[in-house]
Specification:
By secondary structure, the chain is of the alpha+beta class. It folds into two domains: 105 residues; 166 residues, L,D-transpeptidase catalytic domain-like (Beta Barrel), CATH 2.40.440. Helices cover 57% and strands 12% of the residues. It contains eleven helices and ten strands. It has an eight-stranded mixed β-sheet, sandwiched between helices. Helix 2 runs parallel beside helix 5. The N and C termini lie far apart (93 Å).
Length: 377
């Protein structure tokens, strides 16, 4: 009986000692800390932004979690080592480091994308303003609207802290803006072409010289500057601002393209009230022989579809209402200026229409500025 009593006493003593000094094999606070790290990684979009690091963490956590469930009821002495606890602490350190790295990366990424979206917004506004100034917006068509939508989407994703989509959308917007600048250069690059400008200058000088030689009236129109100049006896007497066709900056190719023709023409008719849908009009001899030859050559080469027509009825005119404020390829003046011009120009007077008269014309400057701005994005 005495031995049994001693044994019972030892069991009680050991149990008491264990209750006082033993610990769980799996520290619950450590498990909770790792679960918190897992939540932090998800909040930082680690599965999308750091798939490799997050994948490694998830795989290790899944294995260790299974082991903790098996060892959850085990206890050990404080001085006893635990491989499971060691592995958990290693995972905790790795996860904490990943959270820190992702947080720093996110802050840096947020600043970078914020700057990029802001630059895109600035660039879009700049292009819009400059293109409107040279009447080139029609060239973009739906692409201009699509670019505007992309820039606004990039800003929206940024505000939602969806940085991955913000970056992806910003890249699309960036590409779209570059494409617009490229399109403008392709369609309007001739305004910066020195040989073309020299040709235009020659046409204008010959017209002015004709006016001087014949002591007569002549007109020179610069499309880039949207300016009509009236010459008498070889001297410029007045200049008026003008509006062109809805695609006026382009070279006229065929009927309905909205482009204003370029070349040497003559006034064929003076149309007063009741003779024109406009306030007053000076009809031009478009298409002339040069226009027809150019049109037929473009048709034969396939640049113009076979069913297209060359068009006609190009005038210098005023306007009676806003509905007629946008021409289909003509040259339009305000009515008071049209009155002066109408009374000053006789039938037969030469009219020379050119793209630009100087290298530093409005279109060339815009293209150069857009190119510099495009390089900054």
């Amino acid at each position: 009986m005495r031995g049994g009593h001693i044994y019972s006493t030892l069991v009680v003593l050991l149990s008491t000692a264990c209750l006082v000094g033993c610990v769980q094999a799996v520290p619950p606070d450590l498990v909770a800390a790792i679960e918190t790290i897992d939540q932090d990684l998800i909040a930082l979009r680690a599965p999308e932004t750091a798939p490799e690091e997050y994948g490694q963490f998830v795989r290790q956590w899944a294995l260790l979690k299974a082991r903790t469930q098996l060892d959850d009821d085990l206890i050990r002495w404080p001085w006893e080592s635990s491989d499971l606890e060691t592995d958990l602490r290693w995972l905790y350190v790795m996860g904490e480091r990943t959270v820190s790295q992702l947080h720093d990366r996110q802050v840096s990424q947020q600043q970078a994308i914020q700057e990029r979206v802001t630059r895109l917004e600035t660039q879009l506004h700049y292009i819009t303003v400059r293109v409107q100034a040279i009447d080139g917006r029609i060239l973009f068509g739906d692409k201009g609207v699509q670019t505007d939508v992309l820039v606004k989407q990039a800003r929206s994703y940024l505000d939602q802290k969806d940085y991955l989509r913000a970056i992806q959308t910003a890249e699309k917007a960036d590409h779209a803006l570059k494409a617009q600048a490229s399109l403008l250069n392709q369609e309007l690059g001739r305004y910066a072409d020195e040989s073309r400008i020299i040709y235009w200058q020659t046409l204008a000088k010959q017209t002015v010289e004709w006016s001087r030689t014949h002591q007569a009236t002549a007109i020179v129109v610069s499309k880039a500057e949207r300016e009509l100049s009236l010459y008498k006896n070889g001297r410029k007497v007045v200049s008026y601002p003008v509006r062109l066709g809805f695609n006026g900056m382009l070279e006229k190719q065929f009927q309905g393209d909205g482009a204003t023709p370029e070349g040497r023409y003559h006034i064929t008719d003076r149309r007063g009230p009741g003779q024109t849908q406009f306030y007053r009009a000076l009809a031009l001899d478009y298409p002339n022989g040069a226009d027809r030859r150019r049109f037929q050559l473009a048709k034969r080469s396939g640049k113009i579809a076979s069913y297209k027509d060359i068009g006609g009825q190009i005038e210098i005119h005023g306007a009676d209402n806003e509905r007629l404020a946008q021409t289909l390829g003509c040259i339009m003046l305000d009515n008071p200026n049209m009155t002066v011009l109408y009374e000053s120009v006789p039938v037969g007077a030469p009219v020379t229409i050119v793209g630009a008269l100087t290298r530093q014309n409005a279109v060339a400057l815009t293209l150069a500025q857009l190119h510099r701005s495009d390089e900054e994005i």
